[in-house]
Design goal:
The structure holds two protein chains of two kinds.
Chain A (H helix, E strand, L loop, with lengths): L1 H11 L25 E4 L2 H4 L3 E4 L5 H10 L2 E11 L4 E10 L7 E8 L4 E3 L8 H12 L2 E3 L25
Chain B lengths: L12 E5 L11 E7 L2 E8 L7 H7 L6 H4 L7 H16 L5 H29 L4 H21 L8 E2 L2 E2 L5 H27 L2 H7 L7 H7 L4 H4 L7 H4 L20 H25 L18 E9 L2 E9 L7 E5 L1 H7 L1 H5 L4 H10 L4 H5 L1
Classes of the chains: A alpha/beta, B alpha+beta.
């Protein structure tokens, strides 16, 4: 739990307002109240991650820098299409290679009609391929990515297959 | 009439390695910018066997995705079965009987040995040694036969169920597994180590080739034998224990050299550790059912779930997002070699082409798992 506290304190600088108590259950459902930005401790047995961080898109790089200096590695980047909220969500999973196990999930949301998120390739080179994949499947633009081209789909594809309104 | 080509020293050319090159084991293409025999820039091009499993997952129920999991990493398919079963059990809160947990561990570890044996065979074939392939396939065949007996298939298993496994193991399987362990232990020192590991040709080909630092592993998110060959003691079975792994006494082989030889040694030692786990699991095997109570229609609560398992190639993660419906709202598969391969470009820079192929072999790539 030491690592968890350390990470929470390191991230606290980004989120000045105290986080209102909320549970993860029901999150993402249609009638769930929107959560404020901030870090929330979650049950790893139930959810697999120790910390759930919700941030603004412009804080993604700052969070990545903190995670880098705390010795985390970037495990994966995934996109989620919330069609009813007209939003794309980008999930960054951070984990540790050494010492105490602690997984941190960082989430950010962007409007569906203007999906732009700054790239974290400058902090973690691992993000390069994961961001390209998210771009490939959802059309999310990672600003300042050095090589944002399709990675798994054919280079001339003109569709984003994991968007919920995609019809083959 | 052929005209000899004279390259200026600062002149480079582009060489396509793959997608139909035998050393890429499938359909990986690497765009190489070469200066003579030396690599200036290496750029893997992926997607030649992309099947969009993540979309297929969204289209069906949780159970319907189980057969797909085996078709990603076809060499360690049971670990992919296990990973998917674990994340769904976590989300839906399904209990697994103890006997089923033991059987899962036994079959997954057997499959891990089979995967390492095939890697060993193919790696040495890349380096020009044909005979080891015959030894390894001889041993691997025994495992495949054993697994066929309980799972019903030879490679693309669909053995795990939410809440247990599909079939119980019998006495013949247990006896066969014990015989196999005895046999592999007997063959290991002479056929594997004397013939190959201590062979001067192998040592010259892979020692001090393809150095990966621990920091590089962290920056690129490399896991599995690649990280353990760079001195990082990271194994999900120990770091983030799942199933009944905490009940067994086994070591995580770690080699600090960071070269291809270190990764080779990690895998060779892991086979012995897997055999230790299997033996203990067979000794302690509890009785009881192999299937727990699971609802016919699964509707996990809305939320975000993550679960990781250790496959033969590294950490496999499932990021599952549910909205309370009977099919996954979103599934991201974090496949280990996708991240492991992403450091290839940086490491291969300045390498001889022949060395880069030896290095690529030491990463243990399975392309369908990278492309998904």
């Amino acid at each position: 739990m030491e690592m968890l506290e350390k990470t929470r304190i390191a991230l606290a600088g980004l989120f000045p307002e105290p986080v209102p108590p909320a549970t993860l259950e029901g999150e993402g459902g249609q009638d769930a109240p929107p959560r404020e930005a901030g870090a929330l401790v979650t049950d790893p047995v139930k959810h697999g991650s120790h910390l759930d961080v919700l941030c603004r898109p412009d804080q993604v790089v700052a969070v990545a820098r903190i995670m880098d200096s705390e010795g985390y590695f970037l495990e994966a980047i995934s996109g989620v299409d919330w069609l009813d909220k007209q939003q794309f969500e980008v999930i960054y999973d951070y984990n540790r290679l050494d010492g105490e196990h602690c997984r941190v999930m960082v989430r950010t949301s962007v409007p569906r009609d203007e999906p732009v998120v700054p790239t974290v390739t400058g902090v973690f080179p691992a993000a390069d391929w994961h961001e390209r994949e998210t771009f490939d499947f959802y059309g999310i633009q990672f600003q300042d990515h050095p090589n944002l081209i399709r990675i798994l789909l054919p280079e001339d594809a003109d569709f984003y297959p994991l968007r919920k309104d995609y019809m083959p | 009439m052929t005209v000899p080509v004279h390259l200026r020293h600062d002149e480079t050319f582009v060489l396509n390695l793959g997608p139909q090159h035998p050393a890429t084991h499938g359909v990986l293409r690497v765009k190489l910018t070469m200066d003579g025999e030396y690599i200036v820039k290496a750029e893997p091009v992926l997607g030649y066997i992309h099947r969009m499993h993540e979309k297929l997952a969204e289209g069906g129920t949780f159970a319907q995705f189980m057969p797909n999991t085996a078709r990603m990493d076809y060499l360690h398919a049971l670990a992919f079965n296990h990973g998917w079963a674990l994340v769904v059990e976590k989300a839906a809160g399904i209990e697994v009987p103890e006997r089923a947990e033991y059987i899962r561990v036994i079959t997954v570890e057997l499959n891990r040995i089979a995967s390492h044996l095939l890697w060993w065979a193919a790696f040495l074939l890349d380096l020009g040694g044909f005979t080891p392939l015959l030894y390894a396939f001889d041993d691997r065949e025994k495992i495949i036969d054993l697994l066929e007996r309980v799972t019903g298939s030879r490679l693309t298993y669909c053995y795990m169920r939410f809440g247990g496994v599909y079939n119980d193991i019998d006495d013949e399987f247990i006896a066969g597994t014990r015989d196999f362990i005895k046999r592999l232990r007997g063959r290991m020192p002479r056929l594997y180590h004397d013939l190959v590991t201590h062979n001067i040709i192998l040592i010259k080909r892979i020692k001090d080739i393809g150095f990966i630092s621990a920091e590089q592993c962290r920056r690129y998110g490399a896991t599995g034998p690649v990280a353990r060959g760079s001195g990082i003691s990271y194994d999900i079975r120990k770091n983030e224990p799942y199933s009944v792994y905490p009940e067994f006494d086994f070591d995580i082989p770690v080699f600090a050299e960071g070269d291809s030889m270190a990764r080779y040694m990690v895998r060779m030692h892991e086979m012995e550790q897997s055999m230790r786990i299997i033996e203990q699991a067979l000794d302690k095997l509890p009785g009881g059912p192999v299937m727990g109570k699971a609802p016919k229609v699964l509707k996990p609560g809305a939320g975000y779930y993550y679960s990781a398992v250790e496959t033969a190639r590294g950490s496999l993660g499932h990021r599952l997002v549910c909205n309370g419906d009977k099919n996954p709202y979103k599934l991201k598969l974090r496949s280990p070699t996708f991240s492991n391969l992403s450091l290839f470009g940086e490491v291969a820079e300045g390498m001889l082409l022949a060395d880069a192929l030896a290095f690529m072999g030491s990463l243990d790539l399975v392309i369908p798992e990278i492309d998904r």
